[in-house]
Amino acid sequence: MASQRVLLVEDDEMLHTMYTQKFTKEGYEVLSGYNGAEGIKIAEEEQPDVILLDIIMPKMDGFVALKKLKKSDTTKHIPVILLTNLGQEEDIRKGKELGASDYFIKANHTPQEVVDKVKEVMTTGGVAQA
Protein backbone atom coordinates (compact mmCIF):
# COMPACT_ATOMS: atom_id res chain seq x y z
CA MET A 1 0.00 0.00 0.00
CA ALA A 2 1.33 3.44 -0.89
CA SER A 3 1.96 5.74 2.04
CA GLN A 4 -0.59 8.42 2.72
CA ARG A 5 0.39 11.87 1.55
CA VAL A 6 0.22 15.06 3.57
CA LEU A 7 0.68 18.45 1.93
CA LEU A 8 2.27 20.81 4.44
CA VAL A 9 1.88 24.48 3.50
CA GLU A 10 3.92 26.45 6.06
CA ASP A 11 6.33 29.35 5.52
CA ASP A 12 8.21 29.04 8.84
CA GLU A 13 11.28 26.94 7.95
CA MET A 14 11.79 25.58 11.48
CA LEU A 15 8.16 24.49 11.87
CA HIS A 16 8.13 23.12 8.33
CA THR A 17 11.16 20.94 9.09
CA MET A 18 9.77 19.81 12.46
CA TYR A 19 6.39 18.75 11.03
CA THR A 20 8.01 17.13 7.98
CA GLN A 21 10.25 15.02 10.21
CA LYS A 22 7.37 14.03 12.50
CA PHE A 23 5.06 12.99 9.66
CA THR A 24 7.87 11.15 7.83
CA LYS A 25 8.72 9.24 11.02
CA GLU A 26 5.04 8.25 11.27
CA GLY A 27 5.16 6.80 7.75
CA TYR A 28 3.62 9.61 5.73
CA GLU A 29 4.94 11.08 2.50
CA VAL A 30 5.19 14.85 2.98
CA LEU A 31 4.69 17.27 0.10
CA SER A 32 5.92 20.81 0.81
CA GLY A 33 4.62 24.26 -0.03
CA TYR A 34 5.75 27.54 1.48
CA ASN A 35 2.84 29.85 0.56
CA GLY A 36 -0.81 29.57 -0.44
CA ALA A 37 -0.19 29.77 -4.18
CA GLU A 38 2.36 26.93 -4.04
CA GLY A 39 -0.02 24.92 -1.88
CA ILE A 40 -2.83 25.16 -4.40
CA LYS A 41 -0.55 24.21 -7.31
CA ILE A 42 0.82 21.17 -5.45
CA ALA A 43 -2.65 20.09 -4.28
CA GLU A 44 -3.98 20.20 -7.85
CA GLU A 45 -1.01 18.28 -9.27
CA GLU A 46 -0.38 15.75 -6.50
CA GLN A 47 -3.82 15.15 -4.93
CA PRO A 48 -2.64 14.63 -1.32
CA ASP A 49 -4.78 12.79 1.23
CA VAL A 50 -4.89 15.81 3.55
CA ILE A 51 -3.59 19.39 3.59
CA LEU A 52 -2.08 21.15 6.62
CA LEU A 53 -2.38 24.86 5.87
CA ASP A 54 -0.90 27.84 7.69
CA ILE A 55 -2.84 31.12 7.49
CA ILE A 56 -0.25 33.90 7.74
CA MET A 57 1.98 33.39 4.68
CA PRO A 58 3.51 35.44 1.86
CA LYS A 59 1.97 35.73 -1.64
CA MET A 60 -1.40 34.22 -0.66
CA ASP A 61 -2.68 33.70 2.86
CA GLY A 62 -4.25 30.48 4.05
CA PHE A 63 -7.84 31.78 4.08
CA VAL A 64 -7.61 32.74 0.39
CA ALA A 65 -5.93 29.42 -0.43
CA LEU A 66 -8.58 27.46 1.51
CA LYS A 67 -11.38 29.26 -0.34
CA LYS A 68 -9.77 28.45 -3.70
CA LEU A 69 -9.10 24.81 -2.73
CA LYS A 70 -12.74 24.29 -1.70
CA LYS A 71 -14.09 25.93 -4.89
CA SER A 72 -11.97 23.84 -7.26
CA ASP A 73 -13.42 20.56 -8.53
CA THR A 74 -9.94 19.02 -8.44
CA THR A 75 -9.25 19.81 -4.76
CA LYS A 76 -12.57 20.40 -2.96
CA HIS A 77 -12.68 16.79 -1.70
CA ILE A 78 -9.29 17.03 0.08
CA PRO A 79 -9.60 17.63 3.84
CA VAL A 80 -7.80 20.79 5.01
CA ILE A 81 -6.61 21.33 8.57
CA LEU A 82 -5.61 24.89 9.40
CA LEU A 83 -2.43 25.08 11.45
CA THR A 84 -1.84 28.61 12.68
CA ASN A 85 -1.17 30.98 15.54
CA LEU A 86 -4.36 32.95 14.89
CA GLY A 87 -6.49 31.91 17.84
CA GLN A 88 -9.32 34.44 17.81
CA GLU A 89 -12.81 32.94 17.73
CA GLU A 90 -13.51 34.98 14.59
CA ASP A 91 -10.55 33.37 12.76
CA ILE A 92 -11.59 29.87 13.85
CA ARG A 93 -15.17 30.48 12.68
CA LYS A 94 -13.96 31.86 9.34
CA GLY A 95 -11.76 28.80 8.78
CA LYS A 96 -14.61 26.40 9.48
CA GLU A 97 -17.03 28.41 7.29
CA LEU A 98 -14.54 28.24 4.41
CA GLY A 99 -14.47 24.44 4.70
CA ALA A 100 -11.61 23.52 7.03
CA SER A 101 -11.96 20.08 8.60
CA ASP A 102 -10.26 21.36 11.75
CA TYR A 103 -8.30 24.28 13.16
CA PHE A 104 -5.15 23.93 15.26
CA ILE A 105 -3.43 26.75 17.11
CA LYS A 106 0.27 25.86 16.81
CA ALA A 107 1.22 27.01 20.31
CA ASN A 108 -1.52 24.87 21.90
CA HIS A 109 -0.77 21.53 20.22
CA THR A 110 2.22 19.21 19.98
CA PRO A 111 3.31 17.79 16.63
CA GLN A 112 2.05 14.38 17.84
CA GLU A 113 -1.42 15.83 18.44
CA VAL A 114 -1.40 17.21 14.90
CA VAL A 115 -0.36 13.79 13.52
CA ASP A 116 -3.14 12.13 15.54
CA LYS A 117 -5.71 14.59 14.14
CA VAL A 118 -4.51 13.95 10.58
CA LYS A 119 -4.94 10.19 11.16
CA GLU A 120 -8.45 10.82 12.48
CA VAL A 121 -9.42 13.07 9.58
CA MET A 122 -8.13 10.49 7.07
CA THR A 123 -10.10 7.75 8.84
CA THR A 124 -13.33 9.74 8.97
CA GLY A 125 -13.08 11.08 5.43
CA GLY A 126 -12.41 14.67 6.37
CA VAL A 127 -14.95 15.03 9.15
CA ALA A 128 -13.27 16.01 12.41
CA GLN A 129 -14.70 14.43 15.53
CA ALA A 130 -15.37 16.56 18.60
UniProtKB/TrEMBL annotation:
It comes from the Bacteria. Pfam families: Response_reg (PF00072). Signal peptide: none annotated. One of its GO terms (biological process) is phosphorelay signal transduction system. The modification 4-aspartylphosphate is found at residue 54. Residues 5-121 form the Response regulatory domain. Keywords: Phosphoprotein. This is Response regulator. The lineage of its organism: Bacteria, Candidatus Kerfeldiibacteriota.
